[in-house]
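Go through the following before class.
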Amino acid sequence: MSLRLTRGEYWLLTQAVRFKLPLSLIALPEGPPWDVNTIDMALNCQGHGMGFDELAQTLHELAERGWIALQRCHEKTEALPGDLATIRAELGKPRTNFGGTYYGLTAAGGHAWEQFARPQWHWFVEHEYDDVYEIDASGMLVHPEDPEQWRSMYVTTAHPNILDQYMCAVRTDYEIAAGSEQFDWQPVYWKSSTDAMRCRFRCREMPRGDDQYRPRSIEAFPAWCYWL
C-alpha cells in the first residue's frame, strides 16, 4: 500500500529536508500582501495553507508518529516534547532572529518523505554562504551588498562528478581564493547512512560592467526531487 500524506504533512516534511525550521517561521501568515512578514516571502515558496489550529495539530501528529522532533536552540540545545500544548505554545511565540524552537526530520520522517517525493540523491546540490550579516531597520538579517567582499561558500553534493561540474559553474561567476578549497564528507542531517561530499572555499564575485548581464550559472539547481 502506497504512503498517503495530506498537503500540510508533505509541506512540513519537505521544508525540513535540508535544514531544521523555526516554528515561528512557519507560523507566519501567508500573503498577500507579499512582504517579509509572510511565509511566502520568508521561505520563497507557497505556504502550507493551514490555520493555526490545523498547523499545530499536524505538527503534533507528525511528532506522534516519530517523523519530526522539536528542539529549543539558544545557548544550548534542548529537546522538547511533541505534545499539542507545547506545540501551540511554541507556535504562538513571536518571531526572533536568534534562538527559538525548531522542528526537523527524524530518520523515520525522512524515510516517509522519500517514499512520497522519490528524490534523486545523485543530482542533489546544496550551497550556502558563511557571511557576516547585518540587521536592518525592520530587525531582519540582511547581507551587506559588497561584491568585492571575500566570503566563504559551502557546496555539498552526493556525487563527486556533480561536484566537479558545479565547481566549474561557480568559477564562471566567482573568483576562488587560491588554496582555499577544502574537502570533507558531510551526511544529510537526518540521513546518516548517505554521505555527501562537501567543498568549502573563499570566493568573491567576478567584476562586471554595469551594462553586462550574465546569468549566474550556480543558480541553476538540478531537479533532484520530483515533487519540489
User: Anything to note?
Assistant: Residues 160-173 form the longest helix (14 residues). The two ends are 23 Å apart (CA to CA). The helical segments are 7-15, 23-26, 39-43, 52-64, 84-91, 107-117, 160-173.
